[in-house]
Write a structure and sequence with these properties.
40% of the residues lie in helices and 14% in strands. It is α/β, with parallel strands linked by helices and 394 residues long. The chain folds into 2 domains: 133 residues, Alpha-Beta Complex (Aspartate Aminotransferase, domain 1); 241 residues, Aspartate Aminotransferase, domain 2. A 7-stranded mixed beta sheet has the order 2-8-7-6-5-3-4, sandwiched between helices. The longest helix is centred in the N-terminal third of the chain and has 21 residues. The protein is globular, with a radius of gyration of 21 Å.
């Protein structure tokens, strides 16, 4: 019986990416994935044929409307919600700032927001800014020594004043996955909203907002083979109670569109539609997950002794995103060595996970290596070989 690596048609997948037709290996998908050619084609076609706004009677306006409707349907299918529970923005961070401010209109001084030590700052900074402006209180939930979320600490910090529990489903820095269903359950038991940053998770695993009980969930297609765009699910029973910041003539139905702060980026939405088609055409996450997990385990099994891994040492409870340092080398030196070996990675300090950075304990910078379904077993082996030779003077 073929293994997960042998059975996945990675060669056929890679032929759909012009950017992958070279020896250079892109191992930097945690910072933004490569994009199949059909996504770029869809964006260009929208700019040529749907350069109009909604509501006009002519063809290009109707095409723009069809693009938006299809994007709402595609996002609903991808996330497990309904089309009216979907809204879009230029990116996740901008969308999160807008939605958090809408939610906070009903909050009072002293109300509490919980974030976690695994979060990207796009999931923390909006609440910190609100706390400063509105007299709210932000508390940070810690992690266990193995880097998993400390659910006991979460339970201790929940209170009758908790209004939102905001958390990252997967760490963008070290790949650790959080038990989203349990966090949502605890949030609801305290009467709080469960607010999920799925930006990193969405590239690697299927999402069902109903199954985990999310009230708000955000992601970004640029992490899963699409254009820069913010996509959010907001449960209808939540958004129907909000007073969104919006232009006054904007209609109140469907619910998701009333949360938008301006004209929709129709060309990016067309690219998103092509991304959804692409994912479906390769078998979706049912095909992607076992292949990526096999690549990740291959990497973990081959790590040299002088390389330190931050995060979980197996693929259990993580996605294939790895943060490493090498003895005797600064992260920037290690990254330069890997780039010279034809591997696309870079070094960073916080990776925008400011609380996590303080807890991991490495000095200076570390290198992040991430695998997605267009990467190959050979690229994993090349990364391991380059790490093995990454020594002072090596």
């Amino acid at each position: 019986m073929p293994t997960a690596i042998e059975s996945f048609p990675v060669a056929a997948v890679r032929r759909r990416y012009s950017s992958l037709q070279q020896e250079f290996a892109f191992l930097d998908a945690p910072g933004g994935s490569q994009v199949p050619d059909e996504v770029g084609t869809a964006i260009a076609e929208a700019l040529r044929e749907a350069a109009a706004n909604l509501g006009a009677g002519y063809a290009s306006s109707r095409r723009a409307g069809a693009i938006l409707e299809r994007a709402e349907q595609g996002a609903a299918a991808l996330l497990g919600g309904t089309p009216e529970e979907i809204t879009f923005g230029p990116n996740m961070t901008t969308l999160n700032f807008a939605l958090s401010r809408t939610a906070a209109r009903a909050m009072q001084p002293g109300d509490e927001i919980l974030t976690t030590a695994l979060d990207h700052d796009a999931g923390v900074a909006p609440w910190l800014a609100l706390a400063e402006d509105r007299g709210l209180v932000v508390k940070h939930v810690g992690i266990r020594p193995d880097t998993t979320l400390d659910l006991d600490d979460l339970e201790r910090k929940l209170s009758p004043r908790t209004r939102v529990v905001a958390f990252a489903w997967a760490s963008n820095a070290i790949g650790t996955v959080t038990d989203a269903a349990r966090v949502c359950e605890l949030a609801h038991a305290a009467g709080a909203l469960a607010w999920v940053d799925a930006v990193h998770y969405a590239a690697h695993e299927p999402i069902d907002v109903r199954a985990i009980g999310a009230d708000v969930l955000l992601c970004s297609p640029y992490k899963f083979f699409g254009p820069h765009l913010g996509v959010a699910f907001v449960a209808s029973e939540v958004s129907s109670t909000w007073r969104p910041y919006k232009a006054r003539p904007t209609p109140d139905r469907p619910l998701g569109r009333r949360l938008a702060t301006g004209t929709f980026p129709f060309e990016a939405l067309a690219g998103f539609n092509a991304t959804c088609d692409y994912l479906q055409s390769i078998g979706g996450f049912e095909a992607i997950v076992p292949y990526e997990r096999a690549l990740g385990q291959r990497f973990l099994d081959g790590l040299p002794d002088h390389v330190t891994l931050y995060g979980l040492p197996t693929m259990e409870g993580r996605v294939p995103t790895f943060l490493v340092t090498a003895a005797g080398l600064d992260g920037t030196e290690l990254a330069a060595h890997l780039v010279e070996s034809g591997l696309g990675v870079w070094a960073g300090d916080t990776w925008y996970a400011l609380d996590l950075y303080q807890r991991l304990g490495y000095a200076g910078t570390a290198v992040r290596i991430g695998f997605v379904h267009y990467n190959t077993a050979d690229e994993v082996d090349r990364a391991l070989s380059a790490l093995a030779s990454a020594t002072r003077g090596g």
